């Protein structure tokens, strides 16, 4: 997860990023022991930024398994996200496949800032991740109609980017402590955007939605559903970003800013849902007095349930 201005003091940036490990180390319990193992895959296709790919295929998978891409935080890695979250254990239980990308640039953050990353087939990290998906679809007989993405912090920002630029690939996403698509865009080559990180980049729903629509001009197909999570005490990617994400994705679906339902799944959680005709297109969970790290177990299961895999 991004921290200080990388262009002013890279050593300081990475130093602060190291605290980000706490974001997901406590995010969920490790996967249970299994004979299946995490395997690195090479030569998986077009990979302009040199990402690494790790793959978890349970011993028992569905005949046409779903695919979940699980994207790590800054300073992290695919194997670290595998060890620190429940997605692999849930894959054992429900028979889907998990892809764990690893960022390779300084700070191990994903590119959610460049013009290339924010355009369909534009290049950079998103192209490499989509290549991983295509590799699994071809080699593992996976279902192209059940491809999902989730992530924390930098991974949550990448979740927004992938759903915005590749609506033809992903059917839904779950973003834990992220920012809207395009919010972190920069023009000076930096990967850090202080205005966005501090929750000061405020746009109308139409403006946010237009950024998504401009990422893939001419696309007229279905849009992926989005689940959003954010802590009210987040001091890294501040809480106003949560409302800006809601603005963006409800506008993409042509929905009102007024929730179709509101409930409280557990103490300190407020969940709002947005949709019509019984379909929840956007689901947003606000976590009272929670910081950038999301310490509750069970969140991965709720994401998998939102995807329709549990």
From TrEMBL:
GO CC terms in record: extracellular region
Keywords: Hydrolase, Signal
Signal peptide: 1-35
GO function terms (MF aspect): hydrolase activity
Cited PANTHER family: FERULOYL ESTERASE (PTHR43037:SF5), UNNAMED PRODUCT-RELATED (PTHR43037)
Record-given protein name: Esterase, PHB depolymerase family
Organism expressing this protein natively: Goodfellowiella coeruleoviolacea
């Amino acid at each position: 997860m991004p921290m200080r201005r990388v262009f002013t003091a890279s050593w300081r940036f990475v130093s602060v990023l190291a605290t980000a490990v706490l974001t997901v180390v406590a995010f969920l319990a490790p996967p249970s022991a299994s004979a299946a193992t995490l395997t690195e895959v090479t030569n998986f296709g077009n990979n302009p930024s040199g990402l690494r790919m790790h793959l978890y295929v349970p011993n028992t998978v569905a005949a046409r398994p779903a695919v979940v891409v699980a994207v790590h935080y800054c300073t992290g890695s695919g194997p670290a996200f595998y060890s620190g979250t429940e997605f692999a254990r849930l894959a054992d239980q429900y028979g889907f496949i998990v892809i764990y990308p690893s960022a390779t640039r300084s700070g191990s953050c994903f590119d959610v800032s460049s013009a290339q990353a924010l355009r369909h087939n534009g290049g950079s990290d998103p192209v490499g991740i989509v290549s991983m998906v295509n590799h699994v679809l071809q080699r593992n007989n996976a279902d192209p109609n059940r491809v999902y993405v989730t992530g924390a912090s930098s991974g949550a920002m990448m979740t927004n980017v992938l759903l915005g630029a590749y609506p033809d690939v992903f059917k839904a996403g779950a973003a834990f402590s992220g920012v809207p698509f395009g919010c972190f865009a920069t023009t000076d080559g930096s990967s850090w955007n202080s205005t966005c990180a501090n929750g000061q980049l405020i746009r109308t729903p139409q403006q946010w939605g237009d950024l998504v629509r401009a990422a893939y001009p001419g696309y007229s197909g279905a849009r992926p559903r989005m689940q959003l999570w954010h802590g009210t005490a987040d001091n890294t990617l501040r809480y106003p970003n949560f409302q800006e994400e809601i603005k963006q994705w409800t506008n993409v679906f042509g929905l009102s800013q007024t929730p179709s339902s509101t409930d409280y799944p557990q103490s300190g959680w407020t969940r709002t849902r947005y949709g019509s005709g019984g379909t929840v297109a956007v689901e947003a969970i606000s976590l009272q007095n929670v910081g950038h790290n999301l310490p509750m177990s069970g969140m991965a299961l709720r994401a998998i349930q939102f995807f329709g895999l549990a």
